Amino acid sequence: MTNARENERCYYCGGQEFEERRVKYIYTREGKHLFVPDMPADVCLTCGMVYYHGPALLRVEERFRAIYQSGEEPDRYTTMPVMDYA
Ligand SMILES: [Zn+2]
Questions:
Q1: Terminus-to-terminus CA distance in the chain, angstroms?
Q2: Residue 33 domain-assigned?
Q3: Which residues surround ligand 1, an ion (CB under 5 A)?
Q4: What pLDDT score does 84 carry?
Q5: How would you write the pLDDT of the chain (86 residues) with one tens digit per residue?
Q6: Containing domain of residue 37, as a range?
Q7: What separation in Å is there between the alpha carbon of 60 and the centre of ligand 1?
Q8: Based on the structure, what is the number of domains in the chain?
Q9: Do 61 and 39 touch, CB atoms closer than 8 A?
Q10: How close is the Cα of 43 to the center of ligand 1, in Å?
Q11: What is the CATH number of the domain that holds 27?
Q12: How many whole angstroms from 50 Cα to the centroid of ligand 1?
């Protein structure tokens, strides 16, 4: 995970083709999480590497602080995936 691509080339494979998509993102700090199911990001069409947008990351970080430090309510709660191994 990196937050910006510097010269329009994929940091990993050197690819130059990207597509903007909405991806799942989990911001984690000090054991706390904020799940963002529709995070905007650029995805490398060659290797699939995801590049998050700087402003989007800042927005998530601000929201995280508001929720955990200022007691603001999140938009909604989600639960973790469940596997029934019967
Ligand atoms: Zn790539």
A1: 35
A2: yes
A3: 10, 12-13, 15, 44, 46-47, 49
A4: 79
A5: 454 545 689 999 999 999 999 999 999 999 888 989 899 999 999 999 999 999 999 999 999 999 999 999 998 887 656 777 78
A6: 18-69
A7: 24
A8: 1
A9: no
A10: 8
A11: 3.10.20
A12: 8
DSSP labels, 5-67: -SSSS-TTT----EEEEEEEEEEEETTEEEEEEEEEEEEETTT--EEE-HHHHHHHHHHHHHH
Q: Do the domain assignments include residue 81? A: no
Q: How far is the CA of 49 from the centre of ligand 1 (A)?
A: 5
Is position 22 within any domain? yes
Q: Quick one: pLDDT at residue 5?
A: 47
Distance 2 CA to ligand 1 centre (A): 12
Cite the DSSP H helix spans in the chain. 54-69
Domain assignment present for residue 4? The answer is no
